Amino acid sequence: MYLNKVILYGNLTRDPELKALPGGSQVANFGIATNRSFKGKDGQRQESTEFHNLVAFGRTAEVIAQYCKKGRPIFVEGRITTRSWDDKETGKKNYRTEIVIENFQFGADGGKPGATGGGAPAASYDEQAAAAPKGGDEIQYPDEEINPEDIPF
Fold it and tell me: Whole-model pTM?
């Protein structure tokens, strides 16, 4: 058995760009940055940043484009794919490695607009939208059962 699974938690490096495919479905392209801290050979703490290209399709693309903005944290699960194309002007073959998102959650940012804080991943986008507290109120959960047909994806 083979496995192609990626899990990332980072901040968006640019606003998602939403486009429509010829078949009518939506695609969103954006990037995130992840970092790690480590001690170098000299014992000093160093930091390394990696930049990742991400792509989402369908309803996931629409929600990400609507609610995610540059600098905001996001938790994504997906798979790595590399696509290639020929540059018509130079005749050179180009390659781009991307993460195709299969699942995601909004990152924890303290609930402040424009905040870019870290922390552990927060609730998924449907949980946040349905139960977002207004003005410091406690979260109100619905009394009725959730119908699977009401879920938008």
Answer: 0.67
Number of H helices, E strands in the chain: 2, 6
Task: Name the CATH superfamily, with its identifier, for domain 6-137.
Answer: Nucleic acid-binding proteins (2.40.50.140)
> For residue 88, what are its two tokens?
């018509």
Cα angle, residue 101 at apex, residues 115 and 88 outer, rounded to 5°:
105
94: Cβ contacts below 8 Å, ≥ 6 apart: 84, 85, 86, 87
pLDDT digit string, tens, across residues 111-146: 444 444 444 444 454 444 444 444 445 656 666 666
Joined tokens for residue 139: 């979260």
CA distances from 135 to 104, 112, 131 (A): 26, 12, 13
pLDDT digits (tens, 9 = 90+) for 61-115: 999 999 999 999 999 999 999 999 898 888 899 999 999 999 999 988 644 444 4
Token pair listed for 141: 């959960």
